[in-house]
Structures are given as C-alpha cells and as structure tokens.
Amino acid sequence: MDAAVTVTDLVVDRGHRRVLHGLSFAVPPGQVTGLLGPSGSGKTTLMRALVGVQQVRSGEVAVLGAPAGSPALRSRVGYVTQAPSVYPDLTVRENARYFAALYGAGSAAADRAVADVGLAEAAGQLVADLSGGQRGRASLACALVGRPDLLVLDEPTVGLDPVLRVELWERFHGLAHAGTTLIVSSHVMDEAGRCDRLLLLREGRLLADSTPAELRDASGTEDLEEAFLTLVRNREEVAA
Fold first, then answer.
1. Which pLDDT band holds residue 162 (cuts at 50, 70, 90)?
2. Are 86 and 138 in contact (CB under 8 A)?
3. CA-CA distance, 192 to 38, in Å (whole number)?
4. Is 39 buried (19+), middle (13-18) or exposed (0-12) by CB count in 10 A?
5. Alpha carbon of 141 to those of 12, 104, 168, 174, 179: distances in Å?
6. Within 10 A of 122 (CB to CB), how many other CB atoms are there?
7. Tens-place pLDDT, residues 22-78
8. How many Cβ atoms sit within 10 Å of the Cβ of residue 138?
9. Strand duo 197-202 + 205-210: pairing
10. Can you give the three-state secondary structure of 60-95, one letter per residue?
11. Whether the Cβ atoms of residue 126 and residue 89 lie closer than 8 Å to each other
12. Rounded-to-integer distance, Cα 136 and Cα 232, Å
C-alpha cells in the first residue's frame, strides 16, 4: 500500500463558514504523521473527516483503501478525541477490558494497553477520579486494545508533564515500527520534530506536507516554530 490515507480536494463547511479549503495529501503507512497548526486551523475537522464522522462538502477521503467511514474500517481505525471517550463510573481497567471485549481481545491485552500508557498503578481507580491527562491516557489505552491499523490522535499530549510526553511519543514510534500508521495532532510546534512527516495547517489550508528535515532546509532555520512562521509570511507575501 503506497498510502494509508489519501485526501483529494477536501472541502468542509461548518454552517456558513468554510473550514477546510480543498486539501490534498497522502499519509504514508507505518509512520507518525504530525498534524500541526494553531487552534482553529481545522485540525479536528480534518481528523473527523478521516474517520468518517464529518460531513464534507466535496472531495474524497480514502483510508486503508476504502472510503472513510466504511463499515469495514470500524475495527481497523482507532480514534482518540480531545474529550476523554471512556466511562467515568468504571475503573481504568474495567474500561480497557470492556473495549477489549468489543474487539474480541482478552483481559491480558487490556492490561497491557493500560500499562503501555503509564496507568498500571491507577488501573483500579474510577476514571471520574483521574486527572484530565490521565483520562486522556485511559482513552488511548482503550483505542490501543483493538490494535488498529490506523490510529488518529487529537491532541493526545495536552496536560501531560514532559516525562509522560516523551514516553508517549516513544510508544507512538514503537507502534509505527510495528506497522501502525499514526496521525497525531498538536498545536505545540516543539512536538513537530518528533514526527516522521508533517502536515502544517493554517486557517484550513495546507501550508506544508514534508519531513521536519525538509521543512528546516526550505526555511533555512533549525527552529520548527520559526520555520512555520516563515511559511506563513511567505504565503502572505504571495497573496499580497
């Protein structure tokens, strides 16, 4: 498979406002692709389109060789939203085992997923009693138990301390090395350097589709945040 995800001329309107303006790109399989951009740039809308829950005005989104949202993709695509997608009245372990059962996996797989996101010591706690960052990791554990071919993560490191962020990124790359394709959104540019490939969005438009090294070379700076600002300035100069 040449691309895990292929997006062609994607246009999305929300109400009377255009959110995505004719995006086209391809996501290579078995890599961590970062979806970077400031808040309001359209990252979440794009991710919703990738998993097939966003109404689109025009364009095509193909995921793992099928149209986004196809029934055949339900067991192959994992999606972790910004808001925790777990049951607050269940423990972390109970949540993970419930979702594991839905995927036909056993308790061992659920417990392993909980440990992989650093929640082994909190496995017996109710989700309602966890911090925001812990709830996000509990959601991630529930997505991991299905061993998806594509994992879409919306701001998964928000609210985490630096050590946990590093550990999660190591886990992401471990999954990619094992064959999973990951799309990870963030508004924090210092996470761009942790990605194999970058999609940079601003105001619903794709500013760049490149590797971190290519972006640094094109902008003439090692600072990826400054590279992003350079792209913005260049686009504004062309538009003027």
1. confident
2. yes
3. 13
4. exposed
5. 30, 15, 11, 15, 18
6. 19
7. 999 999 999 999 999 888 899 999 999 999 999 999 999 999 999 999 999 988 999
8. 29
9. antiparallel
10. EEEECCEECCCHHHCCCEEEECCCCCCCCCCEHHHH
11. yes
12. 31
| The pLDDT of residue 240 is above 70 | no
Buried b (16+ CB within 10 A) or exposed e, 169-188: bebbbebbeeebbbbbbbee
Take residue 45 and report the two structure tokens written for it: 């809308």
* H or E element that contains 197: strand 197-202
Residue with structure tokens 């808040």? Answer: 39
Look at residues 123, 178, 188 and name the one whose alpha carbon lies nearest to residue 156: 188
Q: Helix, strand, coil: what percent of the chain each, to 5?
A: 40, 25, 35
Taking CA atoms, 97 is separated from 136, 145, 186, in Å, by 16, 8, 28
